[in-house]
Amino acid sequence: METIVFFMDNLDVILERTLQHIAIVGVAISLAILTGVPIGIAITLNRKAANIVLYVAAIIVTIPSIALFGLMIPILSLIGHGVGYLPAVIAVLLYSQLPIIRNTYTAISNVDPALREAARGLGMTPMQRLMKVEIPLAIPVVMAGVRIAVVMNIGITAIAAYIGAGGLGVFISRGISQTDPRQLITGAVMVSLLAIAADYALMWAQRRLTPASSSSTSASPSNA
Amino acid sequence: MIKLEKLSKVFETPGGGSVIAADQVSMEVNEGEICVLLGPSGCGKTTTLKMINALIPKTSGKITVAGRDVDTLNPVELRRSIGYVIQQIGLFPNMTIEDNICVVPDLLGWDRKKSRSRAGDLLEMVNLDPAIFLKRFPKELSGGQQQRVGVIRALAADPPVLLMDEPFGAIDPINRAVIQDEFLKMQSEIRKTIAFVSHDIDEAIKMADKVAIFKDGKLVQYASPDDLLARPVNDFVTSFVGSDRTLKRLSLLRVGEVMHGDQLRVTAQDEVGKARHLMQEAGHKNIVMVGPQGRARGFLHLNDILEARGTVAEHHNALPSTVHVKDDLRTAVSKMFRHDVSWLACVDDDGFFKGSITQRAISHALGATYRDSAEAAE
User: Fold this and answer.
1) Is B93 within 8 Å of A213 when comparing Cβ atoms?
2) Chain B nearest CA to A8, separation (Å)
3) Residues B222 and B336 in one domain
4) Which residue of A has its CA nearest to B154?
5) Which of A151, A162, B44, B279 is most deeply buried (CB count within 10 A of its CB)?
6) Which CATH class is domain A2-217?
7) Cβ–Cβ of B80/A136 closer than 8 Å?
8) pLDDT higher than threshold 70 for residue B113
9) Is residue A177 predicted with pLDDT exceeding 90?
10) How confident is the prediction for chain A on average, in pLDDT?
């Protein structure tokens, strides 16, 4: 009951911190797509490179987020951004690489060899093959990777409150330090709701991006 | 149209060895002909086919397609100018049937309207309704329908040459026969020059103008289907075409080519005596009774009417079966065996009596080639 009252009284703050949260995850994931998808495609050309890149990306995910934030403080302090928005975005960007690179890599390398042969035999250049066949077919699996990254990082971003990045994590960190269950619950519930909402929104986007009749063919590898 | 000269392919194996997949293959496919490359798996037929459109780079030798040395062409341009059909069909699941058909025209930068209307025409050629199928996605089609689309996709930019890699291999036998027939009918109009890989001797005999038999990368025999069955060059070809090779030739010959085209016949109103007289004169044991227009209605057997009187109508028997002049001998023989008869009346589309075919005439026709070759050998 108290929590609901707190919630209603602080709607403006909740909205502000939710938007901060979205700003961190949204910007970071967009950048992660711009880097991860090309990397995922590029490593399909070389198995050795693929193994190394996926290994490194996997190691990054095993670094606890709080440690990663700690590591970045001295480095980013050099440019005056040791704490705050920038390290939060970089952390999310790094954590997103594994699901996005791996799903892109898996999707592109699993394109039916017969389709690749047909595309070659009909006279497509490697670039045309990529743009007209391989990427369109990979989109559902790539999007599955993006969804995993988004949901995972909405949670991680909550911790970024400790390095002053703002967002819904502020409710949680204050809730803990002030032993205030109202703030704690508000923060936790909002983080969960945001994750669920983002997942559904991306699922919808994924359907829109997939040609009507090829949607169910993509089995998405997931690590969630 | 397609000319291969001493074409070879050597694959390096990871262990440092090498495998000769195609060994000095020389052959020529004439314009408008279907050449079936036939052989057991690993014989080099597919490798040879894929070297033609540079999907597999050749090790040595020369390939000429439509008068142009393929070495002088960019592989991508070359492939766009050659139709290509594969066993796995390879329709792009992210594109509609229309877009799939128009892949090559789009790559060539054809006018969109022109290529789209051609897609509809092509669908009609393979008996698929454009109104239904143009906007569908590949997985909404059956395997047979997909392969029809696969074939017309290869024809979309109207290439003079078509390469087909076991195109009907993944289709069930009933549909395969239907698609083969459709394809032959289409080919009789479009007259493409086609190299067609198959491992099925029956398919080769049915489809081919020429058959190229491969073994261990070498071209063993290059001949017409009839020649191949009648005169296999060595034991390998003999065993590959099968011990029933003479029977296989039955499907190469038409009833019309073998039947007695005699017009010996009686009508229902004729006297039995006339029939008896006609048969005795011609030395036949049977005579066909025709209707007023000339349709085959029944027959008389000489022994049944030796003493008989009256009209043909009173004594005739029903024909157990008839065979169409355009049917192959296989059908004729099958009907003879089923009805336990040694001859059949041959009719045309409208049922008009055209002649009769006997078991003796069939065995004579099949034996003719062997007698010719025996004489040639002497």
Assistant:
1) yes
2) 48
3) no
4) A122
5) B44
6) mainly alpha
7) no
8) yes
9) yes
10) 89
Residue B320 structural domain: 255-364
User: For residue A172, is pLDDT > 50?
Assistant: yes
Handedness of CA B73, B77, B81, B87 (dihedral sign): positive
Partner B contacted by A215 (CB < 8 A): no
Contact B90 A136 (CB under 8 A): no
* Maximum distance among all Cα pairs of chain B, rounded to whole angstroms: 89
- Domain-embedded: residue B247: no
DSSP B259: S
| Chain B contact set for A114 (CB, 8 A) | 86, 88-90
Q: Which residues of B touch A (CB under 8 A)?
A: 53, 55, 76-81, 84, 86, 88-95, 103-104, 107, 136-137, 139-140, 153-154, 163
Asked if the model's pLDDT at residue B369 lies above 80, the reply is no
Q: How far is B213 from chain A (nearest CA, A)?
A: 24
Q: Mean per-residue pLDDT for B90-94?
A: 93
**How far apart are alpha carbons B346 and B354 in whole angstroms?**
5
Rounded distance, CA B68 to CA B50, Å? 17
pLDDT, mean of residues B12-30: 90
Please provide the average confidence, as pLDDT, over all residues in chain B: 90
- Interface contacts A/B by beta carbons within 8 Å: 77
Structure tokens of A77? Answer: 């302090």
Q: What is the pLDDT of residue A83?
A: 86
Q: Find the CATH number of the domain harbouring B316.
A: 3.10.580.10
Residue B338 within any structural domain of the chain: yes
With a CB cutoff of 8 Å and minimum separation 6, the contacts of B227 are none
Domain ranges of chain A: 2-217
Asked if A125 reaches chain B (Cβ–Cβ under 8 Å), the answer is yes
Counting residues of chain B whose pLDDT is more than 70, the rounded percentage is 97
Q: For residues B28 and B84, is the Cβ–Cβ distance under 8 A?
A: no
Whether A213 shows a pLDDT value over 70: the answer reads no
Number of residues in chain B = 378
Strand B193-198 and strand B34-38: pairing? parallel
Question: pLDDT of A58-90, one tens digit each?
Answer: 999 999 988 998 888 899 998 888 888 999 999
Residue of B nearest to A113 (CA): B90
Kindly state the helix (H) or strand (E) to which residue B164 belongs, with its residue range. Answer: strand B161-165
pLDDT of residue A214: 47
